[in-house]
Amino acid sequence: MNPIILPIFLPHLGCRQRCLFCNQKAVAPGPLSPESAGRFIETSLSKFPSSQRDRIKQVAFYGGSFTAMAQDAQVRYLKEVQPFLHSGQIDSIRISTRPDALDDEVLSLLREYGVRTVEVGAQSMTDQVLLLSQRGHRAEDTVASVPRLRKWGFEVGIHLMMGLPGDSRDLFLRSLDRVIDIRPDFVRIHPTLVLRGAGLETLWRRKIYLPLSLDEAIPWLKNGLLRLERASIPVARIGLQPDQELERHFLAGPYHPALHQMVDSAIAYDLAMHLLQGHPEGTKATFVCHPKELSNLRGQKNKNLLKLKDRFLLKEILVQSSEDVMRGSLLLQSTKGNVSVHRRELCNFQGASHS
Length: 355
Prior knowledge:
7-stranded parallel β-sheet, alpha/beta, 12 helices, TIM Barrel, 4-stranded mixed β-sheet
């Protein structure tokens, strides 16, 4: 079971420069002072229902670059969590930072104060994309950071963005393959959005930068998600957490509050399409999936079923659910015998890597 995260946002703290795509104040409140962070933890813990008090809990310092802050500032924040660690109310700490701010001195400090998880903002594994995005580090910094973090015993997450200036679908997938090669514990993928107040806004208004549309982003994400699943690397999140501040600052790009579900629904459509190859026209088709994947198979407003019915000239499509069907699998009932396919197999099918 995933831990409960108590997020403390420190927008732009420790940032050496402003990345072209970034306006963290548009996606997070704060920054909280160390003292306010301590009060936030105490208040949050008091509101947990008794049913969740036994779950693993982490305090997370998000936004900015935690390990690029002055060491005394890092210590002030970390010290605020210590009473909750010692009492057992909090199990560990996670931080997010940049890959070139992870020397042994800072990692020793993190271990001393109970940090367990380090999320590394790689954003891309293509140096030209990083340069155009004004990140200030290279892909090799990310490659070097993971074994160093592992040596110190940290759980490692990698943040990737797609659709940055200079990026392409092939470059994004190459970045993903390089990340898979270094074997992080999990990955987050954020499609690039144009936010009011970010440097990218100027390029967008001048029509120098054209963000991905939602329809363009879904195939990129679908392919990326399947590659990560085949490599058994969990995806912690796709897209930014929706809230009022984000929607107020959002100008352009592939934003949707249920982006991950849209990608899962696109994968379910591909599974169904594969199973229907050669299915007799004018007949009915009956699919069986896990109960928790019914909505993915149907699609929003039954869009998947309507498209499949039209594409394969079917009389009717029926959908059933069963706990006996493995999650990620889809079964097609047939008089000649049931056939099924798992989503991890999609990458094996001809053309799937380009779908």
